[in-house]
Amino acid sequence: MNKTQYLNKVMVKKKLISLGFLMIVVFLNGCKSKEEAKKSSKPNIVFIMTDDHAFQAISAYGHGLNNTPNIDRIAHEGAIFNKGYVTNSICAPSRAVMLTGKHSFVNGKIDNISAFNWDQDNFAKSLQKSGYQTALVGKIHMDGLPQGFDYSCVLPGQGEYYSPDFIENGEKKNIPGYVTSITTDIALNWLKNKREKDKPFLLLYHQKAPHRTWMPEEKYFTLFEDKTFAPPANFFDDYEGRPAAATQEMSIFKDMDLVYDLKMLDKEGDIKTKYREMFQRKYDRMTNEQKAAWDAYYDPIIADFKAKNPQGKDLALWKYNRYMHDYFRTVQSVDDGVGQVLDYLKENGLEENTIVVYTSDQGFYLGEHGWFDKRFMYEESFRTPILVKYPKEIKPRTVIDELVQNLDFAPTLLDYAGIEIPKDVQGESFRKLVNGTSSEWRDAIYYTFYEFPGEHKVKRHYGVRTDRYKLIHFYYDIDQWELYDLEKDPSEMKNVYNDPSYADVKTNMHQQLENMRTKYGDSDALNQTHLSRVLKGKANNH
Question: What is the pLDDT of residues 435-471, one digit of tens each?
Fold first, then answer.
């Protein structure tokens, strides 16, 4: 073999070795691509929950009260649910239902006082076990270190608007600033810097706002300053035929605190109210710079109020408008944060494979029946906003009119993640409903409320709602039934329970109620057990 032949043979060998190496690389990359494709097939999830955000206060729902362009993006790019409801209209129980997919009387968190057992299953735990990286940021309103999350940074209890405390992975710390912006910053920091980029993720991004006491961010102090809000038509409701509604303590006129709720913390101390000192403590959390900005805005309003000293109907309307101004201002900061998170997902190539849910822990009264707060099974607090976008499956501007509840979040998200839904989960996945592959759905939903005796004096009650009718039973220190024809009476002003023309409807609704109680495992005996727990818990807290 001459030198030239030898060199050619060596070159051929080198080419074969290189080709073999290249084939191995291609094979390995192919395996890697398949593995990445497998991982990417699991959608990321951003679950946004606010506190007391009325559906009327989201512009996508068309009530014209305020403008929420970023929240509306979720509706325009995905689905809007016109009949989204909760199972128990109060903060912590609603969150427990969301996590577990089980009614309050099953997961044990029946009111804001009773303990929540974090040892029980929740959908975040299931996602975590299947390879998701999980985080919880903001308000959860349940004691104990959250389980199911690789990272948690939560507000203790209700949280504070200014200079809030947070508990990060069990360690308490104070963070200067405004709570809505801080919560958004923590969520974005986790998305950008703390998560492992090769894993699917679940982020529960929960805002305190617009919960009472509606303390706005400085940049929005003057938003709506030139607008006078007209109260709802039933603002001066007389509650005829509805004794439970008549005995509540959540009236804007009678019960809304001038200082605690409406910021009339005059320097002279002339305005003495039940909760003045509680608000003073909230004000004292501010820095000197924040106080200066706050005083520059609110002091002239306080002076004008004291000079005019409105009474009667004038006072009721004045309180309503002060409430509306501050409430909508806190919503605006929430909307800003939603926009920042949506922008991050889009700018980082995550939008297509990320499910984004926007909801509230319940609805809220914006003057309907003359009220603020929630608790009742009447529509404004029973109903909650639900908006969902997922470009891979949900068409833009999809409208859902079926009866969906917060009970359904857990099974739906497990379904999207390809995880088997546990048999003891009571909710149903609405995945096929929202992607249009099935129209089969429930025809009735069930509701319970337990926190009485308690704040706002809303009676204990349970009930059932169908597409057209609603039956409610108030009990404990009262035995009152209410029936509403929501088609003819959407504002629920006329109780037709004893109307002979609704006799057949009443019979049918009682049967629906019994069917619901049997289906979910509720009973009067169980209610009595829960009552004993509530009263024992109140005694221990005093």
Answer: 999 999 999 999 999 999 999 999 999 999 999 999 9
Cβ distance 448 to 87 under 8 Å?
Answer: yes
Residues in a beta bridge with 152: 136
What does the alpha-carbon distance between residue 250 and residue 245 come to, in Å, rounded to a whole number? 10
CB 374 within 8 A of CB 362: yes
**CA–CA dist 330, 221 (Å, integer):** 10
**Cross-strand bridge partners of residue 481:** 473
d(CA 455, CA 473): 20
pTM of the model: 0.91
Strand (E) or helix (H) holding 168 = strand 165-168
Segments in the chain below pLDDT 70: 1-40, 529-542
| Backbone phi and psi for residue 179, each to the nearest 5 degrees, phi listed first | -60, -40
Query: Which of 405, 398, 393, 383 shows the shortest CA–CA distance to 431?
Result: 393
Dist. CA 382–CA 497, nearest whole Å: 20
Q: Which of 147, 65, 144, 365 is nearest to 245 (CA)?
A: 365
As given in the structure block, the two tokens for residue 160 are 């504070």
Q: What is the pLDDT of residue 536?
A: 58
Handedness of CA 417, 420, 424, 429 (dihedral sign): positive
Q: Do 85 and 408 form a contact (C-beta atoms < 8 A)?
A: no
Answer positive or negative: Cα dihedral of 251, 254, 259, 264. Answer: positive
Q: How many residues does the chain have?
A: 542
CA 447 to CA 317: how far, in whole Å?
A: 32
Judge if the upstream peptide bond of residue 243 is cis by omega within 30 degrees of 0: no
What's the pLDDT at 533?
A: 61
Question: From its phi and psi, is residue 456 left (phi > 0), alpha (psi between -120 and 50) or beta?
Answer: left
3-state secondary structure 12-79: HHHHHHHHHHHHHHHHHHHHHHHHHHHHHCCCEEEEEEECCCCHHHCHHHCCCCCCCHHHHHHHHHCE
- As a whole number of angstroms, the distance between CA 460 and CA 476 comes to 7
Contact 271, 306 (CB under 8 A): yes
Q: Residue 527 has what pLDDT?
A: 74
